[in-house]
Every structure is written in C-alpha cells, then in structure tokens.
Amino acid sequence: KKNTLNPTYNEAIIFDIPPDSMDHVSLHISVMDYDLVGHNEIIGVMRLGSHAEGLGRDHWNEMLAYPRKPIAHWHHLLEPKKSEKEWKARTASFDSQGSCPSPRPPASP
What we know:
Elements: E1 26-33, E2 41-49, H1 55-65, H2 80-97
Antiparallel strand pairs: 1-2
C-alpha cells in the first residue's frame, strides 16, 4: 500500500554476499517522504546486521543460520534523528569502498 499515510512495504531484497564478508556487512534502509513542493525527508530507518540491535540482529542471525532460505520479518521504523549521523558516515565510507551488486528480483514461482 503506497501513497497513503500508513504505507506497507512488502518487498523481497536479495543480495549475494561472500560468506567471509558477512561480519562486515549490514543493511540500512531509509524510508523517504517524497515531496513535490517542499523538501524530501527521511521519515524512518531500520538496520539489519551483526551490529544491529533487537529484531535487526535477530533477523540477521536467522538469515545466517538458514542461508538461501527466505526469512521474513516485519520491522518498525526508528526515528531518523537518532541514527542520521551514523547513516551519513557509513554511506560516505561505503561509497569510498565501491558499490555492491544490485539486488535481484525474487525468482518467479
């Protein structure tokens, strides 16, 4: 459900990551409010990885325990102010290391 005050994002995201890199990888997702008139703003963020907290770490550990198996969880968005500095710093360092492969769409049934 998009273009609403209560959107639902139910998307599969698939990355190929070498096993020896798993300790150095995390996934940061920012949800933006796109505004045609004013300015775009981050309305929420979430993080998955070994250094994430709570459900973000639990989800990551479950993915590691069951490689190549789809693992689905709902994640609540966190307020962006809390992690905006960290996000910008990590994005800058990621850009300097090069880009990662683009996500593949899920296989058709």
